[in-house]
């Protein structure tokens, strides 16, 4: 009887240990899965050159945002940015910024966008274009907002911004001693009125950069990301003892406090489901474009060519456009048109209504007449349409 009791107790102990081990294993698995989910995740891998003239862009596909939440952060890592480089997050529906503050901003380092409910509604349906000019995208990541930490650097007293832009708060240089490129300056606001806007200035009362002259303020405030070194240099010029290294003004809101938000997480290097940028080619003589530019069936695709390469053109020259058709879709007729690269995108022939080239798999040949030649030399050209992948454009002589 005693032996049976000992054996039974040992079995019970073993089962308990196994049960505890089982519970611990489950907890570890959950923690591991949460950790993977919380990492900074690459959604697009470059390189993708965003050249001069606002002619280049790349679409972040809508699938990346299916599980995204308000507060999550998009980060664009880049290099080769010129001093005048600018970026944009654009809605494919109308080519405007997905929010006013993201329509145009300076680029000099990693730049970021905070996803709001309004932005999420757009990007989940249509995706988002990253555009601008004069920089190269290396990768784009999506990170949960929880991977960023905010430190409040200014606690007030609160300032009510009047509609005549006459009020501002002064922030000393000590607030920004740890500020770096890629960080965000968070303006916490209340009593926000329709049309409220913030103005971020240096110690000389000039705006930190053009994009900070009237940043739209939402119900709880706004975030201004430091995308290059210029704002940091202006803050440093104020000197460490200056009580007004930065001034924050504006209209139609109460400034309650100011914080700096920084990334504290780590990057998940799993590229299983990553979107890859089309391969970039070195242009050969006579080539104006060589790559893989998709013109989706939702009419969101276009390619801009500036006027520069057409300056020596004559009526004996032609554009030869190479493409591949996208898989057939019911109700979609692949087609292409050529527009003037300005204003309302009238047809390159001068007609207000576009002239459409129906695509059957054969190359498109575009010839010039005096009207189209004048327009292409002065403003350049926009290729637009749907249902195909543009692979190459050549400018050749018909003689």
Largest sheet: 6 strands, mixed
Count, helices: 4
Give the low-confidence spans.
27-37
The overall pLDDT average reads 88
Percent in helix: 10-25%
* Euclidean distance between termini CA atoms: 109 Å
- This entry's quaternary arrangement is single chain
Beta-strand fraction estimate: 35-45%
Radius of gyration computed on alpha carbons: 27 Å
Number of strands: 27
What general outline do the C-alpha atoms trace? Answer: elongated
Describe this structure in words.
- With 399 residues, this protein is α+β, with helices and mostly antiparallel strands.
- Helix content is 16%, strand content 39%.
- The protein has helices at residues 2-38, 117-126, 230-237, 370-378, and strands at 40-50, 58-60, 73-79, 86-90, 105-106, 111-114, 128-133, 135-143, 148-154, 159-161, 168-171, 184-190, 197-202, 213-216, 221-225, 246-251, 253-263, 267-268, 275-276, 287-295, 302-305, 317-325, 335-340, 357-358, 364-367, 381-386, 388-397.
- Strands 1, 3, 6, 8, 18 and 19 form a six-stranded mixed β-sheet that branches. Strands 9, 10, 12, 15 and 17 form a five-stranded antiparallel β-sheet that branches.
- The protein is elongated.
- The model is unreliable at 27-37 (pLDDT under 50).
Draw up the topology in text.
Layout: H1 2-38, E1 40-50, E2 58-60, E3 73-79, E4 86-90, E5 105-106, E6 111-114, H2 117-126, E7 128-133, E8 135-143, E9 148-154, E10 159-161, E11 168-171, E12 184-190, E13 197-202, E14 213-216, E15 221-225, H3 230-237, E16 246-251, E17 253-263, E18 267-268, E19 275-276, E20 287-295, E21 302-305, E22 317-325, E23 335-340, E24 357-358, E25 364-367, H4 370-378, E26 381-386, E27 388-397
Parallel strand pairs: 1-18, 1-19
Antiparallel strand pairs: 1-8, 2-7, 3-6, 3-8, 4-5, 4-7, 9-17, 10-17, 11-16, 12-15, 12-17, 13-14, 13-16, 20-27, 21-26, 22-25, 22-27, 23-24, 23-26
């Amino acid at each position: 009887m005693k032996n049976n009791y000992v054996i039974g107790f040992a079995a019970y102990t073993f089962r308990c240990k196994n049960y505890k081990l089982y519970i611990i294993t489950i907890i570890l698995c959950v923690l591991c899965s949460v950790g993977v989910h919380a990492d900074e995740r690459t959604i697009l891998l470059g390189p993708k050159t965003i050249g001069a003239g606002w002619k280049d862009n790349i679409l972040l596909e809508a699938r990346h945002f299916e599980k995204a939440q308000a507060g999550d952060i998009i980060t664009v890592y880049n290099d080769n940015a010129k001093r005048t480089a600018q970026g944009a997050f654009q809605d494919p529906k109308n080519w405007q910024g997905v929010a006013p503050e993201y329509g145009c901003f300076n680029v000099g380092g990693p730049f970021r966008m905070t996803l709001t409910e309004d932005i999420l509604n757009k990007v989940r349906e249509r995706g988002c274009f990253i555009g601008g000019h004069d920089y190269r995208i290396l990768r784009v990541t999506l990170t949960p907002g929880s991977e960023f930490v905010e430190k409040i650097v200014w606690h007030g007293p609160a300032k009510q911004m009047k509609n005549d832009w006459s009020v501002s708060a002064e922030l000393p240089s000590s607030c920004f001693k740890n500020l770096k490129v890629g960080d965000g300056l968070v303006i916490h606001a209340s009593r926000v009125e329709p049309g409220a806007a913030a103005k971020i200035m240096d110690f000389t009362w000039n705006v930190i950069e053009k994009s900070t002259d009237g940043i739209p303020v939402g119900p709880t405030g706004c975030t201004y990301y430091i995308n290059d070194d210029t704002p940091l240099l202006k803050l440093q010029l104020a000197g460490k003892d200056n009580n007004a290294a930065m001034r924050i003004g504006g209209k139609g809101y109460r400034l309650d406090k100011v914080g700096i938000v920084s990334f504290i997480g780590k990057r998940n290097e799993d590229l299983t489901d990553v979107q890859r940028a089309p391969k970039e080619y070195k242009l050969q003589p006579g080539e104006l474009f060589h790559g893989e530019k998709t013109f989706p069936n939702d009419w969101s695709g276009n390619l801009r060519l500036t006027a520069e390469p057409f300056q020596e053109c004559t009526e004996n020259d032609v554009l030869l456009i190479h493409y591949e058709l996208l898989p057939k879709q019911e109700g979609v007729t692949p087609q292409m048109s050529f527009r003037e690269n300005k204003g309302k995108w009238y047809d390159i022939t001068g007609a207000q209504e576009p002239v459409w080239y129906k695509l059957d798999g054969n190359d498109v040949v575009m010839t010039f007449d005096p009207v189209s030649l004048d327009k292409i030399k002065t403003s350049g050209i926009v290729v637009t349409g749907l249902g195909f992948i543009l692979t190459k454009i050549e400018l050749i002589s018909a003689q």
